[in-house]
Amino acid sequence: MEKQDGIEMKTSFIVPKEHIRQLINLALDEDIAGGDVTSDILVPTEHQSKAILLAKAPGVLAGIDVACLVLLRVDPDIQIEVLKPDGAKLKKGDIIARIAGRTRSILKAERVMLNFLQKLSGVATQTSKYVALIKDSSATILDTRKTTPGFRLLEKYAVKMGGGENHRLNLSEGILMKDNHLAILRTRGMTLKEAVKLARQKAHEGLWVEIETTNLKEVKEAVDAGADIIMFDNMSPEMMKQAVKLLPAGIKSEASGGVTTRTLRIIAETGVNYISVGALTHSSKALDISLELVAH
Question: What pLDDT, on the 0 to 100 scale, is given for residue 283?
């Protein structure tokens, strides 16, 4: 792994350390700004412990570097041995990391560390399930901007750890004309082709233009307008299959809306290039991971 200006990661996706530090500081302020009165009362100041991070359910790991940063933010003297890297497939009972240091520090960091680790591993695990369902198709699973406020970079990183790919990180990374944009165009008397031309004139070089469509007529209009990507929004699989046939070489397709584990395979078989799934980030269940003190 190449160490860059961010946490060490197995992909080119970089989450700046300063961004992570800000999130960690906010989380710690929420949890221990007034101290941990229980541990401070019951545990002697210099009491030492060893602990493990334990997978209590199978899944895909994401966020171990963030968890380590939480521990070190609470106490720079804590010793951590990471046994499982991000992207690792976990079995129930796997030890993810070993920790040693002041007991008070470990207990103070516990909840915040696990919140990051469980949440991000949940996203990676959910993503891996979607990816596995269509692994023998030509479609690619994408995330969306339906992310937890403040956590977008980390959640999109977790999607990568689960084998998915990222759509736009933010509104500056692509031109996507959706229903409200198209409604404004109509009130201005502007055609779709004129809008695409304007977008390409005004946007910086390299930005792709995507147009949302809901029926075959709109697909034809988007093709004629010269879109780079055409989104099939909440179309039936039968309509998507017809829509794909309308696209000339060079124009990509994206299926969006109503994507679940039950519908995913059917959608992939229509021949679309991308399938965007908001549930990867907005509805993932946290992966069950615990911190347990162990005997010396």
Answer: 94
Q: Is the pLDDT of residue 67 over 90?
A: yes
Handedness of CA 158, 162, 168, 171 (dihedral sign): negative
Catalogue the active-site residues: 111, 146, 178, 212, 233
The per-residue DSSP string of 24-87 comes to HHHHHHHHHTT--HHHHHHS-TT-EEEEEEEE-S-EE---HHHHHHHHHHH-TT-EEEE-S-TT
- Domains in the chain (CATH in brackets) are 17-124+284-294 (3.90.1170.20), 133-282 (3.20.20.70)
Cα 208 off chain centre by = 21
* Strand 95-102 with 175-177, pairing: unpaired
DSSP 226: T
Amino acid making up residue 140:
T
Structure tokens at 189: 């008397």
Tally of CB atoms within 10 A around 191? 14
Tell which residue, 102, 112, 151, has the closest CA to residue 33: 112
Mean pLDDT of the chain: 93
For residue 246, what are the contacts with CB-CB under 8 A and spacing of at least 6? 216, 219, 220, 223
Instruction: Return d(Cα 183, Cα 212) in angstroms, integer.
Output: 12
